[in-house]
């Protein structure tokens, strides 16, 4: 009795994989075509099924067919997306790898006159690889510019901030990210040596999300440095020696459903330091004898915690036993659905906090509401729900905030003199489909909002991307600075950096452009590929 060879088994395995792949492509392609997408996946699916049948019969036509499929797909991919590597990759990578697999001699053993077909297949694979390599080094989206080698001017003194301190995420809540210290310079930076190393001991566990990262920017006030870890352990260190002073564990309720598990930083409040907070302090209604100096810690499971900056103990007079439940009045609340990861703004009276909302999992996600809490008591002072008709309306008992409203996951910026917080927002989930978004849910998406930090009232807003389909959130803390306009007058400005590569320079008072902005209408039909059913373009 003749035993089947390993070559036959390998070919049979390939036939099965090709048939399954073809059926999946055919089914998915039909559904995509029904939705208004490309019909090409239907064609590929049918060709894969025919290829599998021919390969099962050991017909050399299978290799010729696959060579034609590979070449045709390469041409179609270039026609549809051009030479954009990230768009080409999902169209060509699996087909290319499968084509390389077909060059294994065991797959084609027994085929008559197979050499010419394998040469042609190899040629089509070389063409596809060449296109991919070309696209890597010739990004059609890349715009080359020139960075001027100018020396920075001396930083302006900031009220209430000692020169040697870094008391906020961006050194100041205005996000200037610049220290006036000059001991380290271009000449001696090469001579720096490690003074100390500190290991938090916070490691990823089996119950953590896939995206578990350490993104913290520590803050330093006097002889104390504060940092948070991935699981939001709050640790106080001696900045001179790295010696731990205390740590606070908020007992994060970790879960694999979290899209992100991280802590970008914490915020600091000192009741005795009133410099620069005169405007907000006009609205002061509370005080705290237990925690006059406190660290404000955002916790990924939807809590806001206040900790005594000197002792590391929770401030029992803040919220309930030192914490506020940010899941209150949230729609579709679940572990990790609403996830505060960035340090909040802290004024003389108010904590202003926003948070991340899970992207692209569902159209029924929590709200991206922005809220203001009393810095001493944790009492809710105001809300700004970015998807509500009245953003300042606090939900009545039994009601919730608006689901899927645009969220603000990046750090906020604060103009203490004007008592205005600048909020960078993203798009409501799902990020890449906007066919069913309402006008209300798009009104404040992908924007910078100027909000009164004491009342939550909107002063102005500027939208950086209309009807976002590419996850173009405003991804970083705005930066506040005073600049000269064309007439030479100093103007209070806010710099808004975006994922599109545009930097918008706006007047902090009214949101009008200081650097001119040109908006051009975009075509409402696509040049290549099919129109997405139900979608429009900004």
Automatic annotation (TrEMBL):
Which PROSITE patterns does this UniProt record tie to the protein?
BACTERIAL_PQQ_1, BACTERIAL_PQQ_2
Q: Which UniProt keywords apply?
A: Membrane, Oxidoreductase, PQQ, Transmembrane, Transmembrane helix
Q: Per its UniProt record, what SMART domains does this chain match?
A: PQQ
Q: Which GO terms fall under molecular function for this chain's record?
A: quinoprotein glucose dehydrogenase activity
Q: Membrane-spanning regions, if any?
A: 12-32, 38-56, 63-79, 85-107, 119-137
Q: Which InterPro entries match?
A: PQQ_b-propeller_rpt (IPR018391), PQQ_rpt_dom (IPR002372), Quinoprotein_ADH-like_sf (IPR011047), Quinoprotein_DH_CS (IPR001479)
Q: Which domain of life is it from?
A: Bacteria
Q: Which cofactor does it need?
A: pyrroloquinoline quinone
Q: Which GO terms describe its cellular component?
A: outer membrane-bounded periplasmic space
Query: Ranges for the Pyrrolo-quinoline quinone repeat domain?
Result: 166-530
Sequence similarity: Belongs to the bacterial PQQ dehydrogenase family.
Name it.
Answer: Membrane-bound PQQ-dependent dehydrogenase, glucose/quinate/shikimate family
Q: Give the classification, highest ranks.
A: Bacteria, Pseudomonadati, Pseudomonadota, Gammaproteobacteria, Moraxellales
């Amino acid at each position: 009795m003749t035993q089947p060879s390993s070559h036959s088994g390998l070919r049979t395995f390939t036939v099965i994989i090709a048939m399954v792949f073809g059926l999946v492509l055919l089914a998915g392609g039909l559904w995509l075509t029904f939705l208004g997408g490309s019909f090409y996946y239907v064609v590929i699916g049918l060709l894969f099924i025919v290829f599998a049948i021919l390969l099962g019969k050991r017909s050399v036509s299978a290799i010729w067919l696959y060579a034609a499929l590979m070449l045709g797909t390469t041409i179609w991919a270039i026609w549809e997306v051009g030479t954009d590597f990230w768009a080409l990759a999902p169209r060509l990578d699996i087909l290319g790898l499968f084509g390389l697999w077909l060059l294994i001699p065991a797959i084609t053993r027994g085929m008559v006159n197979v050499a010419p077909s394998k040469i042609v297949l190899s040629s089509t694979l070389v063409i596809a690889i060449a296109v991919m390599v070309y696209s890597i080094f010739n990004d059609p989206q890349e715009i080359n510019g020139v960075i001027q080698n100018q020396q920075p001017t001396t930083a302006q003194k900031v009220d209430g901030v000692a020169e040697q301190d870094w008391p906020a995420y961006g050194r100041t809540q205005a996000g200037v990210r610049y220290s006036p210290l000059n001991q380290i310079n271009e000449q001696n930076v090469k001579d720096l040596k490690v003074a100390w190393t500190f290991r938090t001991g916070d490691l990823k566990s089996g119950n953590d999300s896939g995206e578990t990262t350490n993104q913290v920017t520590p803050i330093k006030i006097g002889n104390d440095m504060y940092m948070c870890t991935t699981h939001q352990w709050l640790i106080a260190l001696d900045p001179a020696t790295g010696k731990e002073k205390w740590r606070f564990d908020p007992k994060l309720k970790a879960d694999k459903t979290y899209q992100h598990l991280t802590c970008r930083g914490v915020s600091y409040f000192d009741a005795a330091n009133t410099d620069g907070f005169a405007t907000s302090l006009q609205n002061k209604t509370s005080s705290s004898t237990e925690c006059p100096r406190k660290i404000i810690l955002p916790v990924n499971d939807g809590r806001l915690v206040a900790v005594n900056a000197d002792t590391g103990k929770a401030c029992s007079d803040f919220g309930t036993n030192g914490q506020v439940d940010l899941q209150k009045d949230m729609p579709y609340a679940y572990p990790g659905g609403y996830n505060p990861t960035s340090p909040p703004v802290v004024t003389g009276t108010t904590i202003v906090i926003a948070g991340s909302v899970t992207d692209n999992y569902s159209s029924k996600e929590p709200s991206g509401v922005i809220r203001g809490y009393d810095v001493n008591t944790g009492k809710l002072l105001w809300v700004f729900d970015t998807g509500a008709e009245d953003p300042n309306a606090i939900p009545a008992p039994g009601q919730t905030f608006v689901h899927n409203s645009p969220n603000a996951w990046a750090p906020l910026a604060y103009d203490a003199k004007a008592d205005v917080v600048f909020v960078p927002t993203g798009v409501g989930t799902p990020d890449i489909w906007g066919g069913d978004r309402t006008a209300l849910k798009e009104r404040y998406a992908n924007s910078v909002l100027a909000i009164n930090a004491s009342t939550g009232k909107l002063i102005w807003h500027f939208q950086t991307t209309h009807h976002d389909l590419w996850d173009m959130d405003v991804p970083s803390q705005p930066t506040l600075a005073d600049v000269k306009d064309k007439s030479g007058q100093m103007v209070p400005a806010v710099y808004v950096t975006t994922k599109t590569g545009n930097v918008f320079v706006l007047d902090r008072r009214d949101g009008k452009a200081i650097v001119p902005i040109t908006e051009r209408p975009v075509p409402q039909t696509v040049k290549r590929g099919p129109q997405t059913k139900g979608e429009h373009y900004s």
